[in-house]
Amino acid sequence: KMAAAAGAAAGLWSEVNRCGQNGDFARALKSVNKILQINKDDVTALQCKVVCLIQNGNFKEALGVINTHAKVLTSDVIAFEKAYCEYRLNRIESALKTIQSASQQTDKLKELYGQVLYRLERYDDCLAAYRDLIRNSQDEYEEERKTNLSAVVAAQSTWEKVVPEDLGLREATYELCYNSACALIGQGKLNEAMKKLQKAEELCRQSLSEDSDVTEEDIEAELAIIHGQMAYIMQLQGRTEDALQLYNQIIKLKPTDVGLLAVIANNIITINKDQNVFDSKKKVKLTNAEGVEHKLSKKQLQAIEFNKALLAMYTNQADQCRKLSASLQSQSPEHLLPVLIQAAQLCREKQHAKAVGLLQDFADQHPASAAEIKLTMAQLKIAQGSVTKACMILRSIEELQHKPGMVSALVTMYSHEEDIDSAIEVFTQAIQWYQQHQASQTRGPKSPVHLSLIREAANFKLKHGRKKEAISDLEELWKQNPKDVHTLAQLISAYSLVDPEKAKVLSKHLPSSDTMSLKVDVDALENSHGATYVRKKAAKLTGDNQQKEQGQGEVKKKKKKKKGKLPKNYDPKVTPDPERWLPMRERSYYRGRKKGKKKDQVGKGTQGSTTTGSELDASRTASSPPTSPRPGSGAAVSAASNVIPPRHQKPAGAPATKKKQQQKKKKGAKSGW
């Protein structure tokens, strides 16, 4: 029996070997299971079973076999397979521990170690690991290692803002070109990055077109990630329409990479902002796909969560927005954006005071972010109309007091509030900061920013009539540049009110009129299109022309106003009704309506009214039948359409000749009954 079992086992091992060479691991697994039925603790058979399960993608089952037979399959025997299963099951920390606990670091474990470090975003350690692998390995996988090395450098440039060193890699493949482009994007070199991506696209097409089995759809699917990065560059450059078009083209291809789809969907949401929110809500579903969290970096996932919270705010889902922002704040307590989202939501709910309090609490707890928080608080105060309080908040940001942008904003707001003294104080403090800073650095000429602030301060003081205060600034400017005639003229103008004698002395420094060659054509300047005053040249008039001009003047004097148009039925013999402009109900001779007749007629007012009692008298119109029509009949409509407006009606005593003519015409008309 033992001999028969041994013979059967030998045959099964031959089957396992043959299936392994052919890549048929499903059949090999069946043979291995039969061997294990003969000897359940056969180490080689167990190892083969784990390998077959891994090749078939059954990582969880393979890890179960390893853990079940832990006494037989020690870490020395199967460390790589265990770590690989944990890596593929996204148990990255466990994989790292398994690798580090192995007694011998084989080349396979080192390769996996580099992958694990990349997933853990430990880029410095990962870079060192791949450098060691490239230096100490010589096989057919050198190109793949260089690609991984360039990916690490690109990640450092993108997420850690580290300036990448030149690795001297020959960009012969589209993967290397793509990674190089990503590193350039991280440095902000967008135009160079776009050129690299175009080169990567060209190399990719060349590489894949050589394979006859690859279709155009396969090539487009492979190019999707390159096109996605191109669209991202377009978005950064402000070409949002082009970026959006390219993003949508990629989505239509339905790529299998859930990470790529999630990034594209997130970028479309950022383009939509508070517009097209229904499209954004559809795109959010792509970011929630299974496995996305294992495909993207922590910062990418964080950005997606931030955008979800903002989208909830834009779609008026206040509770959802608060829930998401609170979750983000608990995950990253030092991050500013969740607090800003919460403050924005409170402002949408008109709770500005609560929003300011929230921001103030965060600024007290995180002094490093105080400047950004205070800028936001100032903006909220301005939105509330509290400009003075906003200025106080801005002036409390000491590290920004000397910045030209801050000085300009404060001066503008103080000017709006007509607080000129505070505005001048802002200029003074900024100038003093530059003086102290320059004194500690060097005693050379003043910096351009310093001189610009002095000039702006002088111009501001002169504009608001503070010429005495502007003198010291102007003297400092003139001292720095004695050839500046404009500054000298301003200085003389200021001194003319304070010290006329000093103004006379300074005026001697002005250049003489002889040395100033302006070469200005005064007549051309006055007659130019933009001139506010044009001098009219007095032309001599001959006798005939003078008479002609005088004659025209007389004609102009004789012109009279045009007569107003009179009504067609106007009769100069009849005195117009003095009450013709009043509504009928307000006239003195209005008798009111008879009770019980035509109750359905409104007849009030003049403008927008229906028809009055007298207007419904069909006998007054040429097109009506002799008898009174029924209400709502065609005759009634035509009668109403021919009614003379009230202001054109004849007075009670007008001749009735026209009425007789109308009655003669109505003899042939049909009756309204």
TrEMBL record:
<keyword id="KW-1017">Isopeptide bond</keyword>
<dbReference type="Pfam" id="PF17004">
    <property type="entry name" value="SRP_TPR_like"/>
</dbReference>
<dbReference type="InterPro" id="IPR013699">
    <property type="entry name" value="Signal_recog_part_SRP72_RNA-bd"/>
</dbReference>
<keyword id="KW-0597">Phosphoprotein</keyword>
<keyword id="KW-0832">Ubl conjugation</keyword>
<keyword id="KW-0733">Signal recognition particle</keyword>
<dbReference type="Pfam" id="PF08492">
    <property type="entry name" value="SRP72"/>
</dbReference>
<keyword id="KW-0256">Endoplasmic reticulum</keyword>
<keyword id="KW-0677">Repeat</keyword>
<dbReference type="InterPro" id="IPR019734">
    <property type="entry name" value="TPR_rpt"/>
</dbReference>
<dbReference type="GO" id="GO:0008312">
    <property type="term" value="F:7S RNA binding"/>
</dbReference>
<dbReference type="Pfam" id="PF13181">
    <property type="entry name" value="TPR_8"/>
</dbReference>
<comment type="similarity">
    <text>Belongs to the SRP72 family.</text>
</comment>
<feature type="compositionally biased region" description="Basic residues">
    <location>
        <begin position="556"/>
        <end position="566"/>
    </location>
</feature>
<keyword id="KW-0802">TPR repeat</keyword>
<comment type="function">
    <text>Component of the signal recognition particle (SRP) complex, a ribonucleoprotein complex that mediates the cotranslational targeting of secretory and membrane proteins to the endoplasmic reticulum (ER). The SRP complex interacts with the signal sequence in nascent secretory and membrane proteins and directs them to the membrane of the ER. The SRP complex targets the ribosome-nascent chain complex to the SRP receptor (SR), which is anchored in the ER, where SR compaction and GTPase rearrangement drive cotranslational protein translocation into the ER.</text>
</comment>
<dbReference type="InterPro" id="IPR031545">
    <property type="entry name" value="SRP72_TPR-like"/>
</dbReference>
<dbReference type="InterPro" id="IPR011990">
    <property type="entry name" value="TPR-like_helical_dom_sf"/>
</dbReference>
<keyword id="KW-0175">Coiled coil</keyword>
<feature type="repeat" description="TPR">
    <location>
        <begin position="224"/>
        <end position="257"/>
    </location>
</feature>
<protein>
    <recommendedName>
        <fullName>Signal recognition particle subunit SRP72</fullName>
    </recommendedName>
</protein>
<keyword id="KW-0007">Acetylation</keyword>
<feature type="compositionally biased region" description="Low complexity">
    <location>
        <begin position="603"/>
        <end position="641"/>
    </location>
</feature>
<feature type="region of interest" description="Disordered">
    <location>
        <begin position="537"/>
        <end position="673"/>
    </location>
</feature>
<dbReference type="GO" id="GO:0005783">
    <property type="term" value="C:endoplasmic reticulum"/>
</dbReference>
<feature type="compositionally biased region" description="Basic and acidic residues">
    <location>
        <begin position="568"/>
        <end position="589"/>
    </location>
</feature>
<dbReference type="GO" id="GO:0043022">
    <property type="term" value="F:ribosome binding"/>
</dbReference>
<feature type="domain" description="Signal recognition particle SRP72 subunit RNA-binding">
    <location>
        <begin position="536"/>
        <end position="592"/>
    </location>
</feature>
<dbReference type="GO" id="GO:0005786">
    <property type="term" value="C:signal recognition particle, endoplasmic reticulum targeting"/>
</dbReference>
<feature type="compositionally biased region" description="Basic residues">
    <location>
        <begin position="657"/>
        <end position="673"/>
    </location>
</feature>
<dbReference type="GO" id="GO:0005829">
    <property type="term" value="C:cytosol"/>
</dbReference>
<keyword id="KW-0687">Ribonucleoprotein</keyword>
<keyword id="KW-0963">Cytoplasm</keyword>
<dbReference type="GO" id="GO:0006614">
    <property type="term" value="P:SRP-dependent cotranslational protein targeting to membrane"/>
</dbReference>
<feature type="coiled-coil region">
    <location>
        <begin position="92"/>
        <end position="147"/>
    </location>
</feature>
<dbReference type="InterPro" id="IPR026270">
    <property type="entry name" value="SRP72"/>
</dbReference>
